[in-house]
Amino acid sequence: MKKTIVTVVGHDTVGIIAKVCTYLAEHKVNIEDISQTIIQGYFNMMMIVDTSKSDVEATVLSEGLKEIGEGLGVIIRCQHEDIFNMMHRI
Fold first, then answer.
1. Dihedral sign, Cα of residue 34, residue 17, residue 44, residue 66
2. For residue 73, what pLDDT band results from cuts at 50, 70 and 90?
3. 21-27, Cβ contacts within 8 angstroms, sequence gap of 24 or more
């Protein structure tokens, strides 16, 4: 399994989860876990996904998610699990 962390942060708007999940499904990415909160109009979502069966490279997946985020007015980041863990170590 190739675990990847997808984070979405920004002002809440209709369709964020739907567009992100649709894009991932189109590229055969399986969502293993998802958590989202909305606090005073700010949207925050974290997903753990399995990209091992994806039909595109990680860079293409990341760029596509970034473009979706720009269209929605949110920031979407896609990082391999190892990179995410190294960046968030105490």
1. positive
2. very high
3. 23/64, 23/65, 23/68, 24/49, 27/54, 27/55, 27/56, 27/61, 27/64
3-state secondary structure of 19: helix
Q: Which two tokens stand for residue 45?
A: 């979502």
HEC assignment per residue over 31-83: EEEEEEEEECCEEEEEEEEECCCCCCCHHHHHHHHHHHHHHHCEEEEEEEHHH
Q: What's the pTM? A: 0.85
Task: Provide φ and ψ at 89, rounded to 5°.
Answer: -75, 145
Q: How many residues appear in the chain?
A: 90
Helix/strand/coil for 27: coil
